[in-house]
Amino acid sequence: MTALTTEEKWKAVVGCDHSYDGRFFYGVKTTGIFCRPSCKSKEPKRSNVEFFDEIKDAYAYGLRPCKRCRPDLKEFCPVLDIIEKIKEIFDAHFADKDRLTAEVKKLGISQNHCIHLFRQQFQMTPVEYMNKLRVEQAKQMLVSTELTIVHIALACGFRSLSTFYECFKKYVGFPPKKYREQSSAHS
Fold it and tell me: Which Gene3D superfamilies does the annotation name (predicted)?
């Protein structure tokens, strides 16, 4: 691979060109940060930019890695990070709609984008995923507690008894009362 000229490097930075990632890094003296050529940060002043062929050279210059493009990582895929955070929020707060909404809002993405990313990664909508989690929790509660079915439905995050019955039957194959009876008969 031939060495890149300073002009080629600058054009790659201005164009946020992914094809140059890993071939060089650029640092901005005024911010003390170094980036990948594809970084979507604000275009720096040319006079404030230094180019580095290796990451160790950027560190030696006294720069720290950009938090947006993460040049310190071999691979960085922010979309996968967001999807993982979305899933963690769903796993932790599926039964608490208000907390769930607040936590997702902190991610700074729209509800439609959240749904799109989740469906793309897991081939189901967030609602379908959370209903599966709710039904799994309901199954455990039906077997391990004496709570009424209404209380279990509400504790699992269902807003109505009809939705609970519909989802339970869809994922388990029969209604919650029958599941409880069969489970206690096998104990």
Answer: DNA Methylphosphotriester Repair Domain, Homeodomain-like
Q: Is 170 helix (H, G, I), strand (E, B) or coil?
A: helix
Specify burial of residue 89 (Cβ count, 10 A radius: 0-12, 13-18, 19+). buried
Domains and CATH numbers, the chain: 8-65 (3.40.10.10), 78-127 (no CATH), 129-185 (1.10.10.60)
- Give the residue carrying structure tokens 């209380």: 151
pLDDT per residue over 120-178, tens digit each? 889 999 999 999 999 999 999 999 999 999 999 999 999 999 999 999 999 999 999 99
125 close to 115: Cβ distance less than 8 angstroms: yes
In total, the chain counts a number of residues equal to 187
* Phi and psi, residue 64, nearest 5°: -115, 155
pTM: 0.61
Q: Which residues contact 108 (CB under 8 A, 6 or more apart)?
A: none
Q: Which residues are catalytic?
A: 35
CB atoms within 10 A of CB 20: 20
